[in-house]
Specification:
The complex is a heterodimer of chains A (211) and B (421).
Chain A lengths: L12 H9 L5 E5 L5 H10 L2 E6 L2 H9 L3 E4 L2 H4 L8 E7 L8 H11 E9 L4 H10 L23 H10 L2 E9 L12 H7 L2 E8 L3
Parallel strand pairs in A: 1-2, 1-4, 2-3, 4-5
Antiparallel strand pairs in A: 5-7, 6-7
Helix pairs in contact in A: 1-2
Chain B lengths: L27 H12 L4 E5 L5 E2 L5 E2 L2 E8 L9 E5 L25 E2 L4 E2 L4 E5 L31 H14 L5 E7 L1 H12 L4 E7 L7 H16 L8 H4 L4 H14 L3 H7 L19 H14 L4 H13 L10 H4 L6 E7 L7 H13 L4 E6 L13 H18 L11
Parallel strand pairs in B: 5-8, 5-9, 6-7, 9-10, 10-11, 11-12
Antiparallel strand pairs in B: 1-4, 2-3, 4-8
Helix pairs in contact in B: 2-3, 4-6, 4-9, 6-8
Classes of the chains: A alpha/beta (211), B alpha/beta (421).
Chain lengths: 211, 421
């Protein structure tokens, strides 16, 4: 196994954070795994049994092409096929905003996995607020590159919104990590309200009933 | 299952006649070559005596019996790099070598060969003729050792599981405990799935393309039309045509014509032929092959009978009709794969209406429920079921990627370029 610390800086920062949350040798399902970058990272650095679901044919082709066990499927409809508690971790990385029924997806994830990892862009970030308030336009930026009329991201939420949803589906937030726009980790001691404004993205580790 | 389609630009033989028989042009030399391949194939052949009979699902065991096969590449010292390729309905062992009867190149040279997705520089590839076939493995055209005459319908009906049991005996005889991969499309995909079900510890990985876990009512219906066409031909002689010196060519050609339609999509037929006329400017107000599609189908039918045995067609279609993996496991497909360690790659094509994506998905869901490692892609193609035999780059990329990943996990040495990862 390669050590995480040895990886070059071109690995997406949130992927490294997620990899850090995952125990070596566990069973992981990555929903919306794209081209399999995270799964490959987890196989290499964590020696996990990695599986993925991806909706785009392009993504699945790339992932299977790199030797990963990935199936073409839809988070909104295909999670019911998986047995209860069949994975140690179910990961949803920058995908929740693209699901039709985010609540149901999160609920299914908590059923399938002992732990759930969700990373998301924070729609409550200062930059988004600024664009809405002063430019009066839906935000388009490096992190949110789509125009409002042509985006897969139909359910954006803020960090606070997501924490509320987690509570709603009976999940306990075991860990929350918030990064600012430069990818730096915001201090743990800051209150939620600050995270919700300064956080550009967040990674959550959830479980039912806590640790 | 089918030969690839002729390119649209190619001029088909001039088929003006209304009746098929005038177009059936097999020479005596071709016919006797086809006959001799049934017992004495020009490929390799493994013969099993009465001490190693083959048990069949239908009841009786057969023996002596034989299985014809081809190999490509070299078995490594650990005997860990063998890939078994299972052919489709009317395919054969000549996956990447010249077919002795037709003189045509192997049926999957796009997929199998040096540097190809199934790389014969890296893997030891085995492909055998199926049980019930007519190119050297025991089938209805083979000589029945008890009578000295062709089996005809005296050969018990065979199943996909029987075909796989025969292959397993061949693989054992070749000194291989575990296959690195079993790969197949269409009926070959059924065998690949059956391998994983029957011998999970002997299959490291499985690639099942354009296939299903069971034959649908519609699938059975099409096959029944084909069989009835064969049996309605007076030259079929109750299945004893070889002794009578006859051949139910018309019936078999019609069966092939009907089946060939199911291998293509409406869209690909439309693109290739539309309503174009064959060598004429206006319809002839008769029953000649006015339309290009008619001429094309006749061509498919008549070239098929030159290389295939009519009774074999009855046996292999029956084998697929009986195929239902879940039925043997309490009707629950997931139970078939419970506890399996085999890695799976399942591929389907968008325009394949013979074995539609929904059936591949059912396999994938069952594998997920069983906790098996599985990759699945539905490939965008408008060429119908035949896509798996055609030049679809996406398919090759995925098979290559899947096998490369599996080879890494199995510890099979790869080409230098592989090691950069």
């Amino acid at each position: 196994m390669t050590d995480l610390a040895d990886l070059s800086s071109d690995v997406r920062i949130d992927l490294k954070l997620i990899a850090n949350l995952i125990e070596p040798g566990s069973r992981v399902l990555d929903i919306g795994c794209g081209d399999g970058a995270l799964l490959e990272l987890l196989e290499r650095t964590r020696g996990v049994d990695a599986r993925g679901i991806e909706i785009s044919q392009e993504g699945v082709n790339a992932a299977v092409g790199r030797g990963l066990s990935v199936i073409q499927g839809d988070a909104d409809s295909d999670l019911v096929q998986y047995p209860d508690q069949s994975f140690d971790y179910v990961v949803l990385s920058h995908t929740i905003q693209a699901t039709r029924n985010a609540r149901q997806v999160l609920d299914e994830m908590l059923r399938i996995g002992r732990r759930v990892v969700v990373s998301l862009p924070n729609f409550g970030h200062l930059d988004v607020r600024f664009r809405l308030m002063f430019l009066g336009r839906m935000p388009v930026s490096k992190r949110l590159p789509y125009s409002w009329y042509d985006t897969p991201n139909i359910h954006f939420c803020t960090i606070r919104d997501f924490v509320e949803l987690a509570k709603d589906v009976g999940a306990h937030v075991d860990q929350a990590i918030v990064l600012d726009a430069s990818g730096k980790r915001l201090p743990f001691s800051l209150p939620w309200i600050v995270w919700n404004v300064l956080g550009a993205q967040a990674v959550f580790l959830l479980s039912r009933g806590g640790r | 299952m089918a030969t690839g389609m002729a390119p649209a630009a190619r001029k088909l033989p001039d088929v003006q006649e209304t009746m098929l028989d005038a177009t059936l042009t097999e020479t005596d030399a071709q016919a006797s070559l086809r006959r001799s391949e049934a017992d004495n194939p020009s490929s390799l052949v493994m013969r099993f005596g009465t001490d190693a009979p083959l048990t069949l699902d239908a009841g009786p065991a057969i023996g002596p019996w034989q299985i014809a096969y081809q190999t490509y590449g070299e078995l490594n010292a650990e005997r860990s790099n063998a890939i078994l390729i299972c052919h489709a309905l009317t395919g054969d062992q000549h996956v990447a070598s010249t077919n002795p009867v037709t003189g045509k190149p192997g049926w999957w040279t796009l997929m199998v060969g040096p540097g190809k997705p199934i790389d014969t520089d890296r893997f030891f590839v085995i492909c055998s003729n199926v049980l019930g076939g007519c190119l050297g493995t025991t089938g209805p055209a083979s000589t029945n050792p008890e009578t000295g005459k062709p089996y005809g319908l005296d050969l018990p009906v065979v199943t996909i599981a029987d075909m796989v049991r025969a292959q397993a005996m061949l693989v054992t005889a070749l000194g291989i405990d575990q296959l690195f991969a079993v790969v197949g499309g269409s009926m070959g995909g059924m065998q690949a799935l059956q391998w994983a079900a029957s011998y999970p510890e002997r299959v490291f990985s499985t690639v099942a393309i354009a296939t299903s876990y069971r034959h649908s009512s519609q699938n059975i219906a099409f096959h029944e039309v084909g069989r009835q066409a064969v049996m309605a031909d007076p030259d079929w002689c109750g299945g004893r045509y070889l002794e009578a010196g006859r051949n139910p060519k018309k019936g078999l050609a019609v069966a092939r014509m009907a089946a060939h339609i199911t291998y293509m999509s409406d869209q690909s037929l439309h693109q290739k032929f539309g309503r174009n006329l064959q060598d004429r400017d206006a319809v002839a107000f008769g029953f000649d092959a006015d339309f290009q599609i008619e001429s094309y189908l006749r061509h498919q039918g008549m070239t098929f009978v030159d290389r295939f045995d009519a009774n074999s067609y009855l046996y292999v279609t029956r084998a697929t009709d009986y195929f239902d993996l879940a039925a043997d496991h309490g009707g629950v497909l997931a139970n078939v794969f419970k506890g399996t360690k085999t890695r799976f790659c399942v591929l389907s094509f968008t325009s394949d209406w013979l074995y539609p994506t929904s059936e591949s998905r059912a396999v994938v869901h069952a594998l997920n429920a069983a906790g098996a490692p599985v990759s699945f892609v539905e490939i965008d193609s408008d060429r119908g079921h035949d896509s798996f035999l055609l030049d679809i780059p996406e398919q090759f990329r995925i098979v290559r990627g899947f096998l490369t990943g599996a080879a890494r996990a199995r510890g099979i040495a790869g080409p230098a370029a592989e090691d950069i990862r």
